[in-house]
């Protein structure tokens, strides 16, 4: 692994190195920390509770040597508020972290003529209308990811609640909470752009009008043409790239009338050359149906690439999928949805609608041609498992060979470690989960490489699926990122957030070498919890050389749990040493995903 830094660093030390021979030892040590509750002296609650918004932009104190070529805007989104007081039913508590009420953040990184960087911060709550509804009624509207229902709710009341949610007119759904992925320059949605501006102004959650003259640094700066937020359903919410105000809402039928299913993939894929967007829409019924589609960046037109259905196909919760230069790979994990997906409206959330995990429920792999119009070109299967995040995929020389990297699990337990009462150690929930060592083991990720061979069997369309290896936690973790210039190309380095047993949430940042299996950890101080890292490539880096893949920096928002304040951290992606930071002065919520928009040259 290359280790020579291209940037002056603010700390003498670089990352902490661990090798392949340390993998099992480090996993067992992490599990022991969880088992003995060693995480209890790691403060992380400020990233989940008591969060505020700062409409800004305000300048935050930058130190060190953040490179001037990082100039641009970093958008991030995720949960903000999780509890609402003084409702008719008392304090309302959000159950699952994925359902925290959306808050979006933007960091504007502005260099002066000498190259010295200034950083500005702003944030805005995206679900004030949902908050107002909860404040008024004491309950959440529509369906959620994992909100627990009132255990005292009788059968009739449950049926009525289900009917009210299912029968809500589409025009009411604009208050939906959408909080997972930032999608800049989303094609094909012009007809829905700005369609809720008037509703926002008239809603109970309306805020004071944003000052159109808000100061905004303009030195070589550009913002995306549009920004849409997405989640694990088919809804999309638009925000103003400058003010962050919610201004538009739609679902995937605006792209194509056949995309009428309620679920989709939070993580669409984008062709790195054309900007074309790819995703799927999942519909329910007697048979599950997946419609894989492309939205052309040049025209905004949507094409259905494949409609996949059949008696052996299961409705499932799927958070991401794969793309190569020629194919899309849809992986249906063992997170099957009850009653063909119809159980979601009955339970009013996805988690309770997922069937119990069983090893007989194998993962299904479906390969779709994305450039030649051939539709489904092969299917295969692998042992039962689950994943949230694909990492990268590429075609490996020989025709019909595809390599897919993902963070996978041997059970569904990972879903349950992300309930707020586990994270915040409420009512012993942390001990019920992490005190069960085998359950804890099932909730630890592996960074796994799979090889697919199209046409491997005698039957036409057969895909052989082989798991080549897996690198266990904590040498890998969640919310992975790579150098974006290597999307659909052979890649080596993955950056992710591991669970090391020091916190009830992600407590580190690690660079994993998929060739040598070396792991380099950022040497973070006790109580400093990073968020998803965003890789910013260095302009002029040679991506054809071995040195080019990790030639850049990582941007991550870190909570100092002791001070209850956050900072934007810039790390050298080669050495994992600190390059610079910008202190925010208050806590920023532990978020999900972000996007960096490069300033114009």
TrEMBL record:
Q: What molecular functions are annotated in GO for this chain? A: carotenoid dioxygenase activity; metal ion binding
UniProt cross-references to InterPro entries, sorted A to Z? Carotenoid_Oase (IPR004294)
User: What keywords were assigned to this record?
Assistant: Iron, Metal-binding, Oxidoreductase
Q: Where is the composition biased (Polar residues)?
A: 1-14
Residues of the region (Disordered) are: 1-25
User: Which sites bind Fe cation?
Assistant: 267, 319, 389, 593
Which GO BP terms apply? carotene catabolic process
Per the entry, the cofactor note is:
Binds 1 Fe(2+) ion per subunit.
Provide the cofactor list for this protein.
Fe(2+)
Kindly give the Pfam families that the UniProt entry links to this protein: RPE65
The family classification in the record reads:
Belongs to the carotenoid oxygenase family.
**What is this protein's name?**
Carotenoid oxygenase
Organism listed in the record: Cladorrhinum samala
